[in-house]
Amino acid sequence: MKKFNLMLLFALFTLSASAQDYVDIFKLSVNNATLGNIDNNYETGVNNLNMEVYYPKKLSEKAVLLTGFTVENTRLNLRPNVDRSSLTMTRFNLGMKYQHSEKWSGTYVFLPKIASDFENIGSNDFQFGGLAVLDYQYSETSKVKFGVYASTENHGSTITPLIGIWHRSKDSKFYINATLPIRMDANYALSKKFSVGSDLLTSIKSYNLSQVDSDNYVQEESIRFALYAALGLMDNSIIVRGKVGFDTTDYGLFNSNQKVGAQVLTFPLNTDKRTRLNSEFDSSLYVGFDAIYRFDLTKETK
Fold first, then answer.
1. Which of 224, 202, 220, 223 is nearest to 280 (CA)?
2. What is the pTM of this model?
3. CA nearest 71: which of 55, 84, 53, 86?
4. Domain boundaries in the chain?
5. Phi then psi for 8, rounded to 5 degrees?
6. Nearest to 69, CA basis, from 118, 116, 109
7. Residue 3: predicted pLDDT
8. CA-CA distance, 230 to 24, in Å (whole number)?
9. Residues 244, 272: contact at Cβ < 8 Å?
10. How many Å apart are CA 181 and CA 160, to the nearest integer?
11. Residue 121: pLDDT above 90?
12. CATH code that applies to domain 2-296
């Protein structure tokens, strides 16, 4: 979509800064927006909740096992005069971070998931994805990243090339950790406990509508860009954030028999001949809240 491509270009253009190497062991995000409709004056409230849990386990001097799960729920009205939909994605994350050499390391994750309204679980609710990212240690404070994310979806297969940067300033006040176009987090510490920053979260995924008499799926193309103020507690291992941002998420409704095939980012490799069953959603401001428990990967994992 045009708005996805514009935000991607914006994110790539603004990428320059510093970071730290960490894993967010636990992250809870709550976001609320009111999305309009580009064809009429219809609006719907969108309530999004996302919870991520990760557990890194050091296997050797070179290998760290990464396990965890992600649960996301979105509630909205897909069309006027219909019941409110509850779209839920549950995903298991299993992978490894491996130090290939002094300069090169890699992260490899298998991502099976169930994504639907959870009314009547069936084979169309199960999807599979994978992530592979190589990091090159450019200097003590900088890394560059290259990789790919791929996933089977109800609309076909999605392939997402990845490029990113990890950089931390020498005084550790300013950092960025980005794997674009999936996510970016930039932060400047005003004090030991208080900081300001911005984040970018995107996704392309689908939900099977499995309730009785339904033969449809929802294709979500989500971009949320926000500014935030953060308070760090317990030596910054616990972080709470208040956020305000811009949400350009669209939720397209399609018949289950209609597929787009493979696509790179939002670009189908074949002509998209599907008939959309609802109107495109417009962009909107949103407010949100994050609670994070953060673990520094430079520390020894036992």
1. 220
2. 0.87
3. 53
4. 2-296
5. -65, -45
6. 109
7. 45
8. 15
9. no
10. 8
11. no
12. 2.40.160
Contact predicate 84/77, CB 8 Å: yes
* Cis peptide upstream of residue 112 (ω within 30 degrees of 0): no
Q: pLDDT tens digit string along 47-106?
A: 999 999 988 888 999 999 999 999 999 999 999 888 899 999 999 999 999 999 999 999
Task: Tell me the average pLDDT across 242-250.
Answer: 97
Token couple for 64? 């760290």
Pairwise CA distance, residues 71 & 294, whole Å: 18
Any long-range contacts for 108-115 (C-beta under 8 Å, 24+ apart)? 108/132, 108/133, 109/66, 111/151, 113/70, 113/89, 114/88, 114/89, 114/90, 115/87, 115/88, 115/89, 115/90, 115/205, 115/206, 115/207, 115/208
CA-wise closest residue to 251 among 281, 223, 276:
281
- For residue 95, CA distances in Å to 3, 74, 116, 227, 230 come to 32, 26, 24, 31, 29
DSSP the chain: -HHHHHHHHHHHHT-------EEEEEEEEEEEEEEEBSSSS-EEEEEEEEEEEEEEEE-SSSEEEEEEEEEEEEEE-SSTTSPPEEEEEEEEEEEEEEE-SSSEEEEEEEEEEEEE-SSS--GGGEEEEEEEEEEEEEETTEEEEEEEEEEEETTEEEEEEEEEEEEE-TTSSEEEEEEETTEEEEEEESSSSEEEEEEEEEEEEEEEE-STT--EEEEEEEEEEEEEEEEEETTTTEEEEEEEEEE--EEEEEETT---EEEETTEESS------SSPPBPPEEEEEEEEEEEEETTSPP-
Tokens of 293: 């428990």
Contact 180, 202 (CB under 8 A): no
